Amino acid sequence: PIYYEITSLLVSKATEQLNTQFYGEIFLAISDHIAFAIKRKKEKIDLPNVVLSETKAIYKNEYQLGLWTIKLIKEKIGIQLEEAEAGYIALHLVNFSTKNSSQNTSKIVNFVRDVIEVIEQTMNVQLELDSINYARLSTHLKFLAERVFRNDVENNIDTTENIRDMLKENIRLSLCINRIKKRIENKYHYLLTPDEQTYLCIHIKKNCHI
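RESULT FIELD:
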């Protein structure tokens, strides 16, 4: 009952703060998650959240509600859960929100993680997760992912050729864009338009300070 009570408080708070409604299944899903999270904590089983940084960047408000829930669990049950659980709770909020008609949340987060991985490896950098540039990059990738999963092909007319040519004078940046393009094409069966490549160039340039 206490897990359901915590979930009810969370859903009420989220409904008000996020200005949305939630599917009824959210009560079972989050109550169940809290129960297993506490069970894992007691048994000292660590379950790392490999998409935590992407979740924090893309779904900031939901993540803050996840942190609030962890604090509430500590107050009511006396058990301190890990930050990773706030990320999982955030994804539940997104998945069960009536605003999220696509139901592609986990796919979007993994898409963003895929592209970030290519950027960090190719540019040989560790991106600053708390920076405004990273937040803008993540948001850009989120909307790109939504287009990919809708198979929403934008106009293929190249309107930014001059800008892109200038940006791609940096050989490493050019390689990075080509690797991202290939990763998305092979894994998600979507061909990046010329303009999409240009906008990615700009975001990567800002994040890598080049």
